[in-house]
Specification:
The protein is of the alpha/beta class. 20% of the residues lie in helices and 33% in strands. The protein has six helices and 16 strands. The protein starts with a strand and ends in a 5-residue tail after the last helix.
């Protein structure tokens, strides 16, 4: 899909001081169904477009949700969208999370910062029918309490499901009563069978490396760890080369890849 398709903003939920989740519905013909982990190119008319991961899916009405942090001109425009606004959407692009392959295994869903957004559909899907899996662990890290996404939803996951849900922050404030530290510290109390587990990891690159290496050290096979990579995506079709990471074009071969493929690439120091 090379031409943006119009989607209407039907709701906007402020998450933090600079982050919001916008729910979109087709304003005409709909795009093909997205899968969790894939991304769309969102076009703010008159400004430009950027890649944004899908943070919610409603297949019944072909709706999408995207969680956007305002860090530039385009993301700022998308962050400020209000219900009734129209944006252009291209997609779906990239690879998705392979949750069906984890059936019968213990789950480890580990998110850092805004990396929780691409993993949110995985959590929702897993908790909708947890009997498909063994123990379900949702481990979330945030830099500060004020930067934590989906607070009400996380609380619902904690109290309304049998999943082990844990949250930690790097820098607590006076109101914070929860865990303090990096997200890998939460693995110490997670209950899982290392050789019969599947892990889904997304967040800042150092967090991905530390988490995946810790999981492997604990006995989780690298082939059972999926990570989501982030690079400078522009065309989303694999033609411009801006998102190249070694032999991978992240927009086409990612963003979700197995750790056995990502580990040697992320071990190379950037110039």
């Amino acid at each position: 899909m090379t031409t943006p398709v119009p989607y209407e903003v039907v709701s906007r939920e402020g998450e933090t001081a600079d982050t919001a989740t916008v729910a979109l519905r087709p304003a005409g013909a709909a795009l093909p169904l997205f899968r969790p982990g894939q991304f769309a190119m969102l076009y703010a008319f008159g400004i430009g477009e950027i890649p944004v991961s899908v943070s919610g899916l409603t297949p019944a009405d072909q709706g999408l949700a995207h969680t956007v942090r305002a860090v530039g001109a385009v993301s700022g425009a998308l962050y400020r969208l209000q219900p009734g606004s129209v944006v252009g959407v291209r997609g779906p692009f990239g690879t998705g999370w392979d949750l069906p392959a984890a059936r019968g295994r213990d789950l480890l869903i580990v998110a850092g910062g805004i990396g929780l957004a691409p993993l949110r559909p995985v959590v929702v899907d897993a908790l909708a029918d947890p009997d498909r899996f063994g123990r379900v662990n949702v481990l979330i890290g945030s830099r500060t309490p004020d930067e934590l996404l989906y607070r009400a939803e996380i609380n619902h996951w904690s109290v309304a499901t049998a999943a082990h849900v844990a949250v930690t922050v790097d820098r607590p404030d006076d109101r914070w009563t929860g865990e303090v530290g990096v997200v890998t510290s939460l693995l110490q109390r997670a209950r899982f069978r290392p050789h019969d587990s599947a892990a889904f990891v997304c967040g800042p690159e150092p967090m991905i490396r530390a988490t995946a290496r810790d999981l492997v050290h604990r006995g989780v096979p690298a082939q059972q760890i999926q990570v989501s990579l982030e690079r400078n995506i522009r065309c989303a079709t694999g033609h411009c080369g801006h998102c190249q990471l070694g032999p991978l074009l992240v927009c086409r071969d990612g963003p979700v890849v197995g750790w056995e493929s990502a580990e040697p690439l992320l071990a190379v120091r950037e110039l």
